[in-house]
Amino acid sequence: MTEQEPIYRGKAKSVFRSDNPDELIVKFRDDITAFDGAKKDELAEKGIYNARVSAYLFEYLRANGVPSHFVRMEDERTMIVRPLKMIPVEVIVRNIAAGSLVRNYPFEEGAPLDPPVIVLDYKDDARHDPMINEEIIVALGLMTADEIASVKKTALRINDLLRERIDEIGLDLVDFKLEFGRHGDEILLGDEISMDSMRLWDKKTRTSMDKDVYRFDKGDVMATYAAVAERLTGA
Ligand SMILES: Nc1ncnc2c1ncn2[C@@H]1O[C@H](COP(=O)(O)OP(=O)(O)OP(=O)(O)O)[C@@H](O)[C@H]1O
Ligand SMILES: [Mg+2]
Questions:
Q1: What family, per the record (predicted)?
Q2: Does residue 71 line the site of ligand 1, with CB under 6 A?
């Protein structure tokens, strides 16, 4: 089924058409990249862990009233999703100051952010995903002001739900990135929610349990991804 050419090959996933016009096939590959693709590797099974965690969290969100593009898993690294017309805006929710927030603004790493801070980035690798604001999003015709408000509200609801679950496995949800897209006249949550897109810190040791382990050579990336998947999904 996935022997055909992908309609899109990203840095970590490939997207294929399926026989059903209302379903796309997303294959989570073992590629891992950081710093706009400047650092790249292939780590055996990485795609499986990200797919497993993503599917688990999409199902968890759905059970709590937040729909997404997720339809079902086809195999351990292949997800069937609703086809979305992606909106090139990354919706980032931050609960603790880290990463670019600390690099670009005078926050101390690890400082709690209460209420959470939403950051919007324009998704464009060639431009290095610059921060965007609501006026620019409207001026570019990417979303209306009402749509932005509704997406932000959904992002905060997702934050509450994810924090609750991630807290139970002894981790802090430091921040995470969401992507949304259009399906008919609805805007749905798309893409993935995984160790590539969330920043997770162990509550006791404050050590990273996410892609920062890869970015900054902090330890065994695959053991970390496997541990999060195991704690969250039991597999
Ligand atoms: N339901 C969906 N329908 C259509 N496209 C989707 C859907 N969900 C995610 N996508 C898109 O599929 C692609 C997934 O590939 P991937 O995440 O590897 O690439 P990328 O986002 O271009 O690169 P990177 O995430 O490394 O910046 C992304 O462009 C993402 O926006
Ligand atoms: Mg991506």
A1: Belongs to the SAICAR synthetase family.
A2: no
| Domains within the chain, CATH numbers bracketed | 8-81 (3.30.200.20), 85-220 (3.30.470.20)
Q: Which residues of the chain have pLDDT under 50?
A: 2
State the pLDDT at residue 38.
Answer: 94
Best residue for ligand 1 mutational test, from 7, 8, 42, 193 (most atoms within 8 Å of Cβ): 8
Q: Is 25 in the pocket of ligand 1 (CB under 6 A)?
A: no
C-alpha to C-alpha distance for 198 and 137, rounded to whole angstroms: 24
| Ligand 2 centroid, distance to 221 Cα (angstroms) | 19
- CA 26 – CA 45 distance, rounded (Å): 16
Residue 217 falls in which region: left (phi positive, over 0), alpha (psi -120 to 50) or beta: left
